[in-house]
Amino acid sequence: MANSRRKFIGNASALVAGAGISSVFPGALSAFPRHYSLADHIRVGAIGINGMGWHDLNAVLKNPGVTCTALCDVDKNVLDKRAAELAAKGVKVKTYSDYRKLLDDKDIDAVVIGSPDHWHCLMMAEACEAGKDVYVEKPIGNSIAECRAMVAAQQRYNRVVQVGQWQRSQQHFREAIDFVHSGELGKIRLVKVWGYFNWGEPLTKKPDGNPPVGVDYNAWLGPAPKRPFNPNRFHGNFRWYWDYAGGVMTDWGVHLLDYALLGMKADAPKSIIAAGGQFVYQESGVETPDTLTAVYEFGDFNIQWEHAIGIGVGLYNREHGIAFLGNNGTLVVDRGGWEVIPDGKKMEAVPLRKAMDNGLDLHAKNFIDVIRSRKMEDINAPIQAGANIAILSQMGNIAFRTGRKIFWDKEKGVFDDREANKLIAKEYQNGYKMPRFS
Fold first, then answer.
1. What share of the chain is helix, strand, coil (3-state, %, to 5)?
2. What is the pTM of this model?
């Protein structure tokens, strides 16, 4: 059985030609230090603070010697609310509606980016160029091309970049992958990854209208196509539209498929096929599928993804998870813990090992620790790892959108299908241009 303090490194090879992408786990996390001098003090700004960005910022601020000096959001209602919450704790911050002005602020050392997905690439690249270290929410990019650009930006400016895949900082996930790598499960031919989420009532169609007072809607759209404001496409609902995100596949898939790749030490898939659609919520008006199955072929094993919104129980009586099906037994892991179910008497069962830590807090601490040490190899979710899994998730969506089996040429970084290749990049709109690095 894996020692709970044992260090390990899990490697996942490049998914993109020429990107030099690899996934790395650092060693065990150190204890919180007690005091920091002013020279070690880290000043943080946050961009996009309505949802997960706010949680990320608060996790970062739990670390000694870290303060928030600025907030940015295109929704003044959100901006004022968050500034007031910090003021109630005795923290006074500058506020910006334009992220570029925040990046110009010399009183900021690092930024947390919690904007909608279609903004991640531009903001992250420009933050690195401005000399800031970056904590960027997942998925890192809204296209394969954006993922490549973000890896190149980090390499060009050599900034600390932590991707918000905080499960990479949880001990029980590490122990589970350690066990998979031990070989005790026997030959693994299939990895099942799933998310069944009963999130309540679905969206209903709403008419276009005016954005709420205080919202700079043009700034919210940014590089996305110009469209009339619709509340169903705004704030948390944005992820159900291709302009801004990739649905459940890129929301939860980047968390869960990440561990499938790590467990199998997987390289790029040879082929991808996917099927699904709006099978339940046809009247909702959203674009991404509420039900989807995708199969990634790797040669001597497959990874199978499936999700279904509106169903709260999935495989192994778990809402979400990853199952490594070996000839001797199956290891199942989710955010609650991991266990091994033997196949007959071929191996011993491993009872449920429950999660005992706070992954987000540990992830934020790892980010701050590496800012101070500048040891890039110690970051738990480097931009290369974020690109690896965001690209894999994009591949599943591209297979679904083309409606056919597609094959990936790892050396050239393209598909064998013209329509699929058209979806590798998104054309930036409204005068914005995607970062490019030669």
1. 35, 20, 45
2. 0.91
